[in-house]
Sequence to fold (172 residues):
Amino acid sequence: MKIIFLFLLALALASVPAAAHCPLCTGAVVAGAVGAKYLGLDVTIIGIFSGAFAISLGLWIGRKIRRFIPFQTAILVIASFLLTILPAMPLIKDTVYVPILLAGEPGTLLNQIYFVNKLLLGSIIGGIATLLAYWLHVFVKKQRGKVLFPFQGIAFTVGALVIASMVTYLVM
Fold:
């Protein structure tokens, strides 16, 4: 317990420059995924944090390396997502029925029930929530000329993931 306290104290006292989707943001979403697994939450909730980790990692790497090609950051984010989530999908066997009844005659493409892996579903939700939080952080920073409070990017990201997790938990 003393080691955990000292570690948290060192984190609180450390001087870390505020940057959107820095290693601290990535670490926060990993901690959320581990915490969700430890608490025994549904695989979809773990997927939300796993998808957020993949997106955060792609954004972080995209900011750190020099630009060589157009849309390099977007390509890195997509590659990070695919290379993180797809290898983990066979390890999770939970599936959920997602009814797709948008239009069409019975038996057509839009009027069927599809099977979706819970990890993939959660990862897509988490990825979208992370991107929305990142864009909100950038928008607020651009409008105000600075961040509103220290670690604003982390707060927006974790807040979006908690809201997405609560909504997903209530729906599932």
